[in-house]
Design brief:
There is one protein chain. This protein is mostly beta strands and 541 residues long. It has three domains: 193 residues, Immunoglobulin-like (Sandwich), CATH 2.60.40.420; 168 residues, Cupredoxins -  blue copper proteins (Immunoglobulin-like), CATH 2.60.40; 150 residues, Immunoglobulin-like (Sandwich), CATH 2.60.40.420. The chain has four helices and 39 strands. The strands form eight sheets. Strands 12, 13, 14, 16, 19, 20, 21, 23 and 28 form a nine-stranded mixed β-sheet that branches. Strands 15, 17, 18, 22, 24 and 27 form a six-stranded mixed β-sheet that branches. The protein has a six-stranded mixed β-sheet with strand order 30-29-32-37-34-35, with no helix packed on it. Strand 25 and strand 26 form a beta hairpin. The protein is globular and about 65 Å long. The structure holds copper (II) ion.
């Protein structure tokens, strides 16, 4: 079964190369506007291990954008990495960027006691964050505070996935503080899939499967954002939807048939509000998974429950997986789009864009097929979190300086500081604790809270309406690793919007890691802090 699937994927890889109308010789090839959407090439673990050699490359496109990408030795760009719970993901990274001029060496961003890779950051530095994975933050695993791989260097990751990792969609991207936005805008990102979601949600078994990676990039010519000019252009599986033409990509989909769409918002900065419209009518999307966890699977049976929605708000770095039905023959116009979003007076101009027009599929429609059910769902991490006693309450807030050049995330009572790898931890807790965190947004633009290493349970979204935003009902009670906190409207009679989430430190992941705003422009300008989880040394009774 797997070999047939791999053969099919090999054909898709070939198709990708053949339909790429420009940049075929570029180290970071891209499709031309209006191309058919193809699933990214995929690699699968075998006998508990997926080993992949990635080189990190940089080039410039025809419009002058700086592109970044991860490619395998045969030139395959941004492969989707498929693993199973308990697997090891071994990634050997070679940094192929040229040596930067000495003047570009930046302030040392780590300290000698905790070097992981190189000790000094420069303009070429890269590392990889395995976003959403519930794995160790130790060096050579999902460590981003100190890990630096510089020009010409190689570095090996060995990521040990826990045996109880939830099945679903995760992703990988560079995470060097100060240059993370540039790298992600350049396109250096890809999907990770923990296989087995069909065992939690049998409704997806055997369905055509699309992995859809939405990225953002600079608008060519750098016009001032506003009105019809978006802050960032979008791409869908590397098919650009570029201002001013905004030509959509094309999804070829069988008429009326159901498909399983797995969407990662791999944007550096752009918030999405996804919708499928047939002749102007919003179609029902049946949510299967959010941020890598099957929805509704936390009730003790572990069996997922579908959640119907008409649109879904997807902050940068979030993932949504859903079932959608293709248009029937009577539908004249079918679109996959992102709606316009008000991100606040200081926020980006996230305009409405049609990402793809959906047309009747024939022959190779760019999808693959999801596996059949093979067994029962496994007991996932974070089980029973809703009813577990809470040991600590914490209050944090997002804020900015007056000129929007410094961005902060601060524990109530502490002094706001921009991130530095040498900052002491803002929060220290102990393995085994369960904490309720309230996170407030005091700024006049959206911020998007991300927590590394663990998922949190969404308890409430407060004061959204008074500030002109609606809570996303589908995420209540779900496990997420990303959550949007909308802008404060500046009206002193309106309380700050906030969310309340439950953090689960009962798992094995100890050490230092980070939480931050996942609008990477904000993260690069300081909106990140360190949490330290101390090992629980209390003897078990
Ligand atoms: Cu932010």
């Amino acid at each position: 079964m797997k070999s047939i699937r791999q053969l099919f994927l090999a054909i898709v890889v070939v198709a990708c190369v053949h339909t790429s109308a420009y940049g075929q010789t570029s180290p970071c090839p891209r499709f031309s506007p209006g191309s058919n959407v193809q699933n990214p090439p995929a690699l699968f673990s075998e006998e508990g291990t997926l080993k992949v050699n990635l080189s990190y490359n940089r080039t410039t496109d025809a419009d002058g954008r700086t592109l970044y990408c991860f490619t395998t030795s045969d030139g395959t760009e941004s492969p989707t990495l498929h693993v199973r719970p308990g697997d090891h993901l071994i990634v050997n990274v070679k940094n192929n960027l040229p040596t930067p001029a000495p003047a570009s060496a930046m302030k040392m961003s780590t300290n000698a006691a905790t070097v992981c890779g190189d000790a000094t950051m420069d303009a070429s530095s890269v590392n990889i964050h395995y976003h959403g994975t519930n794995v160790s933050p130790a060096c050579h695993q999902d460590e981003v505070i100190h890990t630096l791989i510089n020009s010409g260097q190689t570095f090996s990751y060995n990521i040990a996935f826990p045996t109880d990792e939830p099945p679903g969609l995760y992703w990988y991207h560079p995470h060097v503080h100060g240059i993370a936005e540039t790298a992600v805008l350049g396109g250096a990102s890809g999907a990770i899939i923990v296989d087995g979601i069909e065992n939690f949600q049998p409704a997806v078994a055997g369905l055509p499967e699309r992995v859809l990676v939405v990225r953002d990039q600079n608008v060519a010519g750098q016009p001032m954002p506003g009105g019809a000019v978006p802050s960032w252009d979008l791409t869908l599986n590397y098919v650009p939807i570029a201002y001013p033409a905004l030509t959509p990509a094309v999804i070829r989909m069988n008429q009326g048939g159901q498909e399983f769409w797995r969407v990662v918002n791999a944007s550096a900065d752009t918030i999405l509000d996804l919708q499928v419209l047939y002749d102007g009518k919003a179609q029902t999307l049946l949510l299967v998974g959010l941020d890598g966890v099957p929805v509704g699977s936390q009730d003790g049976t572990h069996q997922g429950q579908l959640i119907p929605v008409k649109d879904f708000r997807l902050p940068p770095a979030s993932r949504v997986e859903f079932i959608v039905s293709g248009p029937t023959s009577s539908v004249k116009t079918a679109q996959f789009l992102t709606q316009a979003i008000n991100t606040g007076v200081f926020g980006d101009n996230d305009t409405q864009r049609t990402l793809a027009t959906i047309v009747g599929g024939e022959g190779d429609d760019g999808s693959t097929k999801l596996a059949a059910v093979t067994g029962q769902p496994w007991k996932p991490r974070f089980a029973d979190l809703a009813t577990t006693p809470v040991t600590t309450q914490r209050h944090l807030y997002f804020s900015e300086n007056a000129t929007q050049t410094q961005f902060f995330i601060t524990v109530d009572g502490q002094t706001p500081v921009v991130f530095s790898a040498s900052n002491p931890p803002a929060v220290i807790t102990t393995q085994g604790s369960v904490e309720d965190w309230t996170i407030e947004n005091q700024a006049k633009e959206n911020h998007e809270f991300h927590f590394h290493q663990i998922h949190f349970l969404v308890l409430s979204q407060d004061n959204f309406q008074t500030n002109g935003s609606q809570p996303v009902q589908a995420i209540q009670g779900q496990l997420m690793d990303m959550i949007e906190i909308p802008y404060w409207d500046g009206n002193v009679n309106h309380p700050f919007p906030s969310v309340k989430v439950r953090m689960d430190f009962r798992g094995p992941d100890i050490g230092d890691f980070v939480y931050h705003c996942h609008i990477l422009n904000h993260e690069d300008q300081g909106m990140m802090a360190i949490i330290r989880v101390l090992p629980n040394t209390t003897p078990k009774k």
